[in-house]
Automatic annotation (TrEMBL):
This is F-box/LRR-repeat protein 15/At3g58940/PEG3-like LRR domain-containing protein. It comes from Nyssa sinensis. It comes from the Eukaryota. The lineage of its organism: Eukaryota, Viridiplantae, Streptophyta, Embryophyta, Tracheophyta. Residues 87-293 form the F-box/LRR-repeat protein 15/At3g58940/PEG3-like LRR domain. Pfam families: LRR_At5g56370. SUPFAM superfamilies: RNI-like. Transmembrane segments: none annotated.
Length: 407
């Protein structure tokens, strides 16, 4: 049974039987909805929040399979350790702790005794267990957001979780190295930097998302490229900085390996005024012979750029090359501003995709006039290698009332 705590407590007045049953709820979720308990949409004080949670736990009986503490206004405090101690003695399986304000929270020793954990979601915490800690052997999902943890401990935590299927790491601090030994890992998402990549043994990895947020330099760059080696990725999400890192030491002619299993490629914050970026985008696409879907989110460039003509020339030359996107079926390009380089890329994809089914173009309404009418006039004239290719011009994401147009 799953019911918001405030509703469970209120419902207890309707039935004497329910009055005692609610204290057996196996799922306790303390989030921002807690402020509704008073009937007014205002934040209780820190003391009030702690008191409410303490009272609920004091009255609770039976196992707690899921415990979530994610309140925007709750800061690190001693009482949180008491809450963790309580749930650690009640068989918790799914645990979420998100500290949004103040200092990071150092996890108490009682937390590391929660050996039944299957799902763990931590934000702004310090992860420093005793040397006797053997990991969470039943863990299947792990999220570490701005968690202070050493590279060694991260590697140890992952390797001691043989059932792990989903892993998310977000950090503004650079790790010394990345080592992942996870035989059952299927999804890996990172928003962090690693100075080196020691080992990636993930034979079943299908979805990989890498966001660097800042440019890489030196050893960081060369090692981020190694992520491609021996990974059976089917769904790849990367950002502008990662794409650009592929060309830090010069634009490579090919990737370290062909991405034979890749079917879906999503690229974020891509600038079509940067020759290195555009070259590497095409390199990724051409190195994926079984690619079926491509989604690109563009980033505009307002200043004059001397590379624009070079990018345009490069794309035109590619148009005369013999490469073919033989399996590509769906393409979506967001925030199109109408730059010649953007249009030339669209023209190239249409001309090289014999099995293309549909292409969705979403304009950047901040930069186009007449909702991008000039873009539509140009695109509909481009040659299409696929007789079944349908081009959809979609501005409804910016204006729900506006219509979509098909050609």
């Amino acid at each position: 049974m799953c019911l918001p705590i405030q509703d469970a407590v209120r419902t207890s007045v309707l039935s004497s039987k329910w009055r005692y049953n609610w204290v057996n709820l196996p799922q306790l979720i303390f989030d921002d909805n807690l402020c509704k308990m008073s009937g007014r949409y205002q934040w209780p004080t820190q003391e009030k929040l702690v008191m409410i949670i303490s009272q609920v736990l004091l009255l609770h009986r039976g196992p707690i399979h899921k415990f979530t503490l994610s309140i925007s206004e709750l800061e690190s405090c001693y009482e949180i350790d008491q809450f963790i101690l309580f749930v650690s003695k009640n068989g918790v399986r799914e645990f979420t702790l998100q500290i949004s304000k103040g200092v990071v929270h150092k996890l108490p020793s009682s937390f590391f005794s929660c050996l039944q954990l299957t799902h763990l979601d931590l934000w702004n915490c310090v992860f420093r267990p005793l040397s006797t800690f053997q990991g969470f052997s039943k863990l299947t999902s792990l999220v570490l957001g701005q968690v202070i943890i050493s590279s060694f401990m991260l590697a140890s935590l992952i390797s001691s979780s043989p059932l792990l299927e989903q892993l998310t790491i977000e950090s503004s601090v650079t790790f010394y190295y990345l080592e992942i030994v996870a035989p059952n890992l299927k999804v890996l998402r990172t928003r962090a930097l690693f100075k080196s990549v020691h080992c990636l043994k993930t034979p079943h990895l299908a979805i990989l998302s890498i966001t660097l947020k800042v440019p890489t330099i030196g050893e960081e760059t060369s090692n981020m490229i190694k992520v491609f080696d021996s990974l059976p990725v089917e769904n790849l999400h990367i950002d502008n900085h990662y794409v650009k890192s592929l060309a830090t030491d010069g634009i490579p002619e090919r990737l370290p390996t062909t991405l034979n299993r890749l079917q879906i490629l999503k690229l974020a914050d891509i600038c079509f005024a940067d020759l290195k970026v555009v070259t590497c985008v095409l390199l990724l696409i051409c190195s994926s012979p079984n690619l079926q879907e491509v989604e690109i989110t563009l980033r505009g460039y307002d200043r004059p750029n001397s590379e624009m003509d070079l990018v345009l020339e490069f794309l035109m030359l590619e148009g005369y090359s013999d490469f073919s996107l033989k399996q590509l079926r769906k393409v979506e390009i967001q925030y199109v501003s109408g730059m010649n380089t953007e249009l030339e890329f669209i023209k190239l994809v249409l001309a090289k995709s014999p099995k293309l089914e549909n292409m969705v173009i979403m304009p950047d309404l901040r930069k186009v006039s007449n909702r991008g009418l000039e873009i539509t006039k140009k695109v509909i004239q481009f040659r299409r290698a696929s007789p079944n290719a349908e081009i959809m011009y979609d501005d409804t994401y910016a204006d729900p009332i506006a219509a979509s147009y098909y050609w």
